[in-house]
Specification:
Blueprint: H1 2-20, H2 28-42, H3 48-72, H4 87-104, H5 107-120, E1 125-130, E2 134-139, H6 140-177, H7 181-230, H8 234-241, H9 248-287, H10 303-323, H11 326-349, H12 351-356, H13 360-412, H14 418-435, H15 437-440, H16 442-468, E3 474-478, E4 485-493, E5 499-503, E6 506-508, E7 514-517, H17 524-532, E8 538-545, E9 550-553, E10 562-563, H18 564-569, H19 579-588, E11 601-602, H20 604-607, H21 610-624, E12 628-632, H22 640-653, E13 658-662, E14 674-680, E15 686-690, H23 691-697
Helix pairs in contact: 1-2, 2-3, 2-4, 3-4, 3-6, 4-9, 6-7, 6-9, 6-14, 7-9, 8-16, 9-14, 9-16, 10-13, 10-14, 11-13, 11-16, 13-14, 19-21
């Protein structure tokens, strides 16, 4: 941008020199180019998304300056002179460049652009297939920037076509007024048809290009947000901490899609309307430069421009007053809709338990209550939108007749022709459409603001959890402790900060199966989670032998949606294990009936009983062969004989794995070499104590 600003500054000085040397140039031309140079210099600090807009705008101004120069030197024929833009159009473009810079300094816009630039600044390599060129390999950020620049240019070209169609309307109605048949048919077939063909072709390219940009942009942000949410157990810690980020699934699936779509729609729409405003204000000013104040002889240069501006300002202010509550209502609607979807999904997950408890009526009542919240908030939106629509409808109906009311007196006294009247009405409508962009888009803007708020609070929640991730229990890999797992100065707390249990100088010896017992709520499962590194509350150190793997099987396993093969090999990737190994693991885990169903897709979490799910989790461990296997009541749903068989299978199949179990059954002691119990101390906190030490004390 700095080099471009320097080039624009030098070009502006050169144009000043040409003007003072006698070339018929308006003073606005060199002044506008110099101003553009200043705007480009300021743009160096702008977000990349907005830099693209100013960059394309600079390219357009270069073309306009060349057209003006060619006309000044007499290199453009009279037939094409009407296509030469007025100098005021250059000034409008420069003013718009400064406006873009000014908008970029608004805090909420910087927040929006920060989200956008995560894509446009991406250095990840990617490919795109370009018609007539072939496959192009570049960074995803460069590809997105190129697509955005092309779309901005296409939209500006569409505005130029609209300007030319405005002149076509003037010439056609003039031909009708004087009943000039040949001129009418010439305008229709040789002017309108080619322009319409080009317009449709450009619109088609624009639609395809924008959808390509949207899906690439969304795909990148989706991958980024999913990674940030899942990496380092952030999703689990966010749930525990209770950060202000409800329904993260909805924020990733819906809010990201809405953000991409609405950012593109609103920014390109604003650009399009601004370019329309710049183009048609010049036309409208020229057409109404000799108009007088209605009912008087007082001349008001550019009367219709001032009327359009005042009319639009009044409408914009009133729209904001009426529609402002929509922002909060749309935010709440997203939340209650997501809560309702989550309730339905949870009901589907626990259908058996609900059926066994005859809980259908309770579920109906709960779902009805949640849906009632949707209806209540929706009706508030309806009432507010109704008020907004009433005003907008009246406003835009008045738009139809206002330009005719203002121009008809001049037509009746033969001051303007029918063609000029139609051109003036068209220009007035275009200027009004550009100025009332805020009015027509208010509901979209309100919804968009809610989406931005949800994404920024989601990012803030992720950042907050990550900042605090290093403040709790420290799980480190160390060779100094030998092959054993050592817990030192550990104090595990609950999410509200209350201490739950403590453990100091507790070691789990490699190769020695250990059983951890104790009353419910004494912190056994929480200790396992602290050892695994996912529990964020507390302090202390867990030394894990360097280079050794660990696997924790909870009482209720996670069964992902998909094939049985994917469920068994989870969290392994596709192809990590061959069929023979998977079938052997299923057979060893006492699930021989499933060996021929590896590629069946079902809701396995609902199809399998809890006991079958626990055995499937055992099969995962048999495949993964971890160095440390933590069983958190992972066989509690099995009958005692089957549980005994499972432990014998683990001991035989995984001789190099150290098993640490949590359980309440006395029969488990036979499968472990050592027993540790959670004992309550004088301070009310539980601590792991060797069972032999407890017995000796008695």
């Amino acid at each position: 941008m700095v080099k471009a600003s320097l080039a624009a500054g030098l070009a502006g000085l050169a144009l000043f020199a040409l003007r003072f040397s006698g070339v018929p140039l308006s003073l606005l031309v060199p002044a506008s180019v110099l101003g553009l140079g200043a705007a480009l210099y300021l743009s160096a600090s702008m977000p990349k998304f907005l830099k693209v807009f100013n960059g394309v705008l600079a390219g357009v101004e270069v073309i306009l300056v060349l057209m003006i120069l060619f006309d000044a030197f007499g290199w453009i024929s009279e037939d094409l002179a009407a296509y030469v833009p007025p100098a005021s159009m250059l000034a409008g473009g420069t003013i718009f460049a400064f406006l873009i810079y000014g908008v970029s300094r608004i805090p909420v816009i910087r927040t929006i652009m920060t989200l956008a630039d995560r894509y446009f600044d991406s250095q990840a390599m990617s490919e795109i297939n370009v018609p007539l060129i072939g496959t192009v390999r570049a960074s995803e950020g460069r590809i997105g920037t190129a697509l955005l620049a092309a779309l901005v240019a296409l939209n500006l070209f569409q505005v130029a076509l609209s300007v030319r169609l405005n002149f076509f309307g003037r010439d056609m109605f003039n031909a009708l007024q004087v009943k000039d048949g040949p001129a009418f048919w010439y305008q229709l077939f040789w002017i309108f048809v080619p322009l319409a063909t080009v317009f449709v072709s450009v619109a088609l390219v624009e639609i395809v290009s924008q959808y390509v940009l949207r899906i690439r942009w969304r795909s990148f942000l989706n991958g980024l947000y999913v990674s940030e949410w899942l990496d380092d157990g952030t999703h689990y810690r966010m749930q525990l901490v209770g950060r202000e980020a409800d329904n993260p699934d909805q924020r990733i699936a819906d809010d990201l899609r809405n953000y991409v779509d609405q950012t593109y729609t609103l920014s390109i729409g604003l650009l399009n309307q601004s370019a329309t405003l710049v183009s048609f204000v010049a036309i409208l000013w020229t057409l109404s430069r000799d108009f007088t104040l209605p009912g008087t002889d007082i001349p008001v240069p550019g009367l219709l421009v001032w009327v359009a501006i005042l009319y639009a300002l009044f409408g914009t202010w009133l729209t904001h007053v009426i529609g402002r509550p929509l922002i909060g209502l749309y935010f709440r609607q997203e939340k209650v809709e997501a809560d309702y979807r989550f309730s339905l999904a949870r009901l589907r997950e626990y259908t058996e338990q609900i059926a066994l408890l005859d809980g259908e009526e309770a579920e109906k009542q709960a779902l009805g209550r949640r849906f009632g919240m949707i209806v209540e908030n929706f009706m508030q939106i309806v009432r507010r939108v109704m008020h907004l629509t009433i005003f907008q409808s009246a406003y835009f109906q008045a738009n139809v007749v206002v330009p005719y009311i203002l121009t008809a007196p001049y037509y009746f006294i033969d001051k303007i022709t029918l063609g000029q009247m139609q051109q003036t009405v068209g220009a007035f409508s275009s200027v009004q459409g550009a100025l009332t962009f805020f009015i027509t888009s208010y509901s979209t803007i309100a919804s968009y603001k809610a989406v931005i708020d949800r994404l920024t609070t989601f990012e803030a929640a992720i950042s907050g959890v990550r900042r605090e991730s290093g403040k709790g229990v420290q799980v480190t890999e160390s060779a100094s402790t030998g092959p054993d797992l050592l817990v030192s100065d550990l104090e595990v707390a609950l999410p509200d900060g209350r201490a739950l249990m403590r453990a100091d100088d507790v070691s789990f010896k490699h190769g020695e199966a250990t059983l951890l017992t104790g009353p419910s709520g004494s912190g056994k499962s929480t200790l396992f989670r602290a050892i695994s590194g996912i529990w964020p509350f507390g302090k202390g150190v867990v030394d894990v032998p360097a280079g050794q793997s660990m696997m924790l099987l909870p009482q209720r396993p996670y069964i992902p949606i998909g094939t049985l093969r994917a469920a068994i090999t989870y969290p392994g990737m596709h192809g990590d294990y061959d069929d023979a190994a998977i079938k052997a693991a299923l057979t060893a885990a006492k699930l021989p009936a499933l060996v021929d169903k590896l590629d069946e897709e079902r809701a396995w979490a609902q199809t399998l009983s809890l006991g079958e799910q626990q055995r499937l989790a055992i099969a995962r461990a048999l495949l993964a062969k971890p160095d440390w296997l933590l069983l958190d009541e992972a066989t509690a749903a099995l009958d005692e004989p089957t549980e005994a068989e499972i432990y014998l299978v683990l001991k035989k199949t995984l001789p190099g794995t150290t098993i640490v179990s949590i359980g309440h059954r006395s029969t488990l002691a036979a499968f472990h070499d050592r027993s540790i119990g959670m004992q309550k101390g004088a301070d009310g906190l539980f601590s792991p104590v060797e069972k032999r030490e407890t017995a000796a004390a008695k």
